[in-house]
Amino acid sequence: MLETELEERRIKAVARRLQEAHLPAVKTLDEFDFAKAGTLSVSQILALAAGDYLARKEPILFLGDCGTGKTHLATGLCVAACRQLRKVRFVTAAGLVNDLLEAQHVNQLGRALSRWARYDLVVIDELGYVPLAELGAELLFQVISDRAEKASVILTTNLPFSEWTKVFTNARLCKALLDRLTDRAHIIETGSESYRFRRTLERHQAGRVGAVTLRNASEGSETAEALRNVTGGQA
Cβ contacts of residue 167 below 8 Å, gap of 6+? Predict the structure, then answer.
């Protein structure tokens, strides 16, 4: 009876962590198709899911083109952390910057920074998709800097490190940010071939094959019917 009650409490606690994480969708690593992920190391991802990087306060960086699975992998690690009852928060880079700018506008920046610092894991998705104004870049730097060696951060980006100055136009700030992020980081490249595009193409091709099969079957039926009419039903 006690074990059942404890398990029910744990299930509710995990559900609460998942809700508080604000995930765009609950996707697990079990749902990720590693067979189509090129050179991505399955063992490395599963080892990270065990959560040791959280205890060591290490960052994780996913670098790759659009559609290569960066957000899915980051979300899967979020779900794994929630199952370990960690406090997790998922946010896009633009969403985080907007939150900080709004807090600063109402003189609540210190409180907002403290709130972000309390999470065991913060996932910052889609860095590089939208250029940041200098103030926004500085605020994002502050969140990441505050977490250095204190708590983990996962970041996804479509930009190689050499192009980060497109987002962080202040070269000194960009260098300092990379210094903090890459120190002791797990840097994982997801490649350039879009998994989503390939999956869509495969579905389209499967649909075309199905359509051809149906058309051939229909044409075969029509031919048989014509033969029966010609032969007086003896075909």
Answer: 127, 128, 131, 132, 137, 159, 174
* Each residue's pLDDT expressed in tens, for the chain with a length of 235 residues: 678 999 999 999 999 999 999 999 999 999 999 988 878 999 999 999 999 999 999 999 999 999 999 999 999 999 999 999 999 999 999 999 999 999 999 999 999 999 999 999 999 999 998 888 999 999 999 999 999 999 999 999 999 999 999 889 899 999 999 999 998 999 999 988 776 656 676 677 766 655 555 666 565 666 556 545 645 555 4
Contact 130, 158 (CB under 8 A): no
Kindly state whether residues 77 and 176 are assigned to the same domain: yes
Q: Which domain holds residue 225?
A: 198-235
Q: Bridge-partner residues for 122, per DSSP?
A: 89, 153
Where residue 25 falls (left for φ over 0; alpha for ψ -120 to 50; beta otherwise) is beta
Number of independent structural domains in the chain: 2
Both 84 and 10 in one domain: the answer is yes
Contact 185, 144 (CB under 8 A): no
- d(Cα 158, Cα 154) in Å, to the nearest integer? 14
Give the CATH number for residue 175: 3.40.50.300
Separation CA 228–CA 226 (nearest Å): 5
Reported pTM:
0.83
Kindly state the tokens that stand for 225: 């019917």
Report strand pairing: 88-92 vs 121-127.
Answer: parallel
